[in-house]
Amino acid sequence: MVSECLSVANLQDRINQMEETHYSTSEELQATLQELNELHEQVNRLRDVNCQLELDRSYLIDTLVSQTKKLEGSLAKSEQVTVLLISQYSDEERLKELGASGRERELVALLRTVEAEKEELEARRAELVTALEEMRSKFDQERFDLIEKFR
What we know:
Order of helices and strands: HH
Number of helices: 2
Mean pLDDT: 81
Low-confidence stretches: none
Distance between the termini: 60 Å
Helix content: over 70%
Radius of gyration: 38 Å
Structural class: mainly alpha
């Protein structure tokens, strides 16, 4: 009878140990699942951020290309104005028509307009280049962080 009691007690101890082990394993699995879910959510958020960065990058590149074309157009206009001024001043009859003060006023007005437009476009181009470099840097850092996170 005593040996039966010891056997039953041993079996009861083993059952209790197995239940504790099962409970601990279950808790660990739940914690792991929760951590995986959080990581999955984080990956989804990072994908969204990455997508937005790609869209921003594309927009900045398109804008930069557009501004560069405008700048090139302004440079071409500037060259045309220079050619016109040179050809205009080579004609003696036109010089007499304009008179010195009229010539000076037209020249100054044209040069101011061209210079202002050129400065505005160059400033805009510089802003876009800076923004593009910042976005590229941010994109590279986000990608690096994402890669490091999953190593």
